[in-house]
Amino acid sequence: MFHRRLIRAGLPAIAILVLGLFGSGQALTFFDPVSGGFVEVDQRYSKNRKPPAKYHRQTVRFSTREAPGTIIIDTNKHFLYYVLSHNRAVRYGIGVGREGFGWDGEVHVARKSEWPRWFPPQEMIAREPRLKKYANGMPGGPSNPLGARALYLFDGGRDTLYRIHGTNEPWTIGLNVSSGCIRLVNDDIIDLYNRVKPGAKVIVL
After folding, report:
1. Quick check: 140 and 133 in contact, CB under 8 A?
2. What burial letters (b/e) apply to 52-87, b meaning 16+ CB within 10 Å?
3. Which one-letter DSSP state was computed for residue 19?
4. Helix (H), strand (E), coil (C) string for 77-98
């Protein structure tokens, strides 16, 4: 069972990151559902627009008793591991939930989606009327906050509202920027998507 470290007024955590929706001038601005406004985040990688080399996808030695096909997420180190056989794993750099939006536990991948549609929660629309035009969903595409692929995380039969998804903002990898979702650069989420099977166990540390 997964555990949310903090839940704010019952607000869904799904995809409240709205990078790029309102022009390049707000490319490093994030929507905060608690205050109902946009806030700037750490911009340490904004100069070269890419994360450090240590967050690049690579196959590494990784000892675990979990079966191949399991996803293990280390939110403190900003790494996601896709377990292979013989003590190996594919390691991906990730962006994770900012302070107050972290969570941990065990869930599973209920379904997968290519170029997923994004549905902003009603609470978000109420705080940011500009999102009203997406009430019926924002079509998948380069500007969509969920990126190229999404893995939908469930706890038993219940949608946690958390996703593992892509991003067009590579400088957010290695940072605590989201409201609980796990983000990878689009090339990496496509690679992970092609490996992961529905029902796969996901362990968040």
Report:
1. no
2. eeebebeeeebeeeeeebbbbbebeebbbbbbbeee
3. T
4. CCEEEEECCCCEEEEEECEEEC
Supply 65's token pair: 């008793």
pLDDT tens for residues 132-146?
A: 888 888 889 887 888
Residues tagged active-site: 165, 181
CA pair distance 70, 89, nearest whole angstrom: 10
Give Cα 200 to chain centroid, integer Å: 17
**Torsion angle defined by CA atoms of residues 173, 178, 180 and 182, in that order, rounded to the nearest 10 degrees:** -30
C-alpha Rg value of the chain to the nearest Å: 16
Query: CA separation (Å) from 23 to 20, 29, 64, 161, 181?
Result: 6, 10, 43, 26, 22
Structure tokens at 133: 């035009």
Read off the pTM.
0.77
| DSSP one-letter string for 22-56 | T-GGGTTEEEETTTTEEEE---TTTTTTS--GGGS
